[in-house]
Amino acid sequence: MTTVTQMKCACPSCLCIVNLSDAIQKNDHYYCCQACADGHPNGSGCGHTGCGCDK
Q: What's the whole-model pTM score?
């Protein structure tokens, strides 16, 4: 059996890969940051280098 420890951030426009142990969990989805988990209020992005998600 394989244990998954990393996956893509659940935000559709985000390119980040998150460690499940560090991720923000919301509604059974895993996010790289609070901005992604909250649906990017005020157009805030995740701020991670090279990603550029903002919605």
A: 0.86
